[in-house]
Amino acid sequence: MLKIDYLLPFFFIAFSLVSFAQDDLMDMLEAEATEELGNEKVQATFKTQRIINLHSNETVKKKTLDFRVTHRFGSVGLYKAHDLFGMDNVNDIRISFDYGITDYLQVGIARSKRQELIDGSFKFRPFTQTTNNKVPVSLVLLGQIGFTPQRDPDSLYLKTAHRFNYTYQLIIARKFGTRISVEIAPTLTHRNIIRRYVNPDNGAEEQNTMFALGAGGRFKITQRTAVLIDYFYIFSKYRQNNSTTPFYNPLGIGIEIETGGHVFHLVATNAAGIVAGNYLPYNNESWRGLGIKAGFNISRVFNVGKR
Predict the structure, then answer these.
(1) In the chain, how many domains are there?
(2) Which CATH number is 291's domain given?
(3) Residues 198 and 219 in one domain
(4) What is the DSSP string of 212-279?
């Protein structure tokens, strides 16, 4: 019969092997957990689908409806105290509904006051920034088609096709830490019909298709407030130094306030409309010339089915 003294070394060796195996297993599990944690997708680069004028990289979650009201008052420089410096007037109003088919694909429909524009859109997010920077940015594709049913006293819309315009954007966004988010957005707009005006100062003719580069950012101040800014540079020779019809690049600044189920934006911008197909081609007012329009964006999200 074996004595206990002879068994002790075997118990010690077996215990050591088990301990090493446990340590190796724990190290593997911790490494996997760390890797999985590092692969988490960055959330809330921006709080809503819009910064001010510029679309953000955010998309509506699956089976969720985003109801949004966007309002732009009259230009401050065109009105006096009697009109509350433009607050009694409306430059544009847009009511929109956006629905999440998946967490990364949404469709929407909206109606604006300017040109009585009805627009449909889609947003697709193929890449989302990860916390370990293996995916350093979020990437979104935006497509928008607009149709104006307004009356045509000047006989511009000789065909139904003339009433359509299109906007395409590639949105590249990144969140830096917990406070700063930025994005750039190469943008292409196309109008099926235009009047062939000529810039008298450089001879450039108006074009159906126009390219612009948008940029925007968000700086978080407190848990529920942030500062917003966005800007578009329009690449159009016809719009450069046009003394007959001046054009200006859209600039917007604002304050974001989160109030539970709502996200509220108080904004100021010289943009002539709310939809890119309006404010990019037709922006004739500047900040310097007091073409500033106060306004607000308000968003309310509804769950419309089990996710």
Answers:
(1) 2
(2) 2.40.160.40
(3) yes
(4) EEEEEEEEE-SSSEEEEEEEEEEE-GGGTT-SSS-----EEEEEEEEETTEEEEEEEE--S-SSHHHH
> Distance (Å, rounded) from C-alpha 293 to C-alpha 270?
6
Q: Which one-letter amino acid corresponds to residue 24? A: D
Rounded CA-CA distance 126/106 in Å is: 12
pLDDT digits (tens, 9 = 90+) for 103-132: 999 999 999 999 999 999 999 999 999 999
| Dist CA 201 CA 203 (whole Å) | 6
What phi, psi does 274 have (nearest 5°)? -105, -35
Question: Which domain, by its residues, includes 13?
Answer: 1-38
Please list, in sequence order, all residues whose beta carbon lies within 8 angstroms of the beta carbon of residue 205, skipping any fewer than 6 positions away: 196, 197, 198, 199, 238
**Closest by Cα among 280, 226, 249 to 51:** 226
Q: What percent of the chain has pLDDT over 70?
A: 83
- The shares of helix, strand and coil residues in the chain, as percent rounded to the nearest 5, are 20, 45, 40
Give the pLDDT of residue 38: 58
**Which pair of structure tokens corresponds to residue 157?**
């819309």
4 and 72, same domain (yes or no): no
Q: Strands (DSSP E) along 38-154, which ranges?
A: 64-75, 90-102, 105-112, 118-127, 138-147
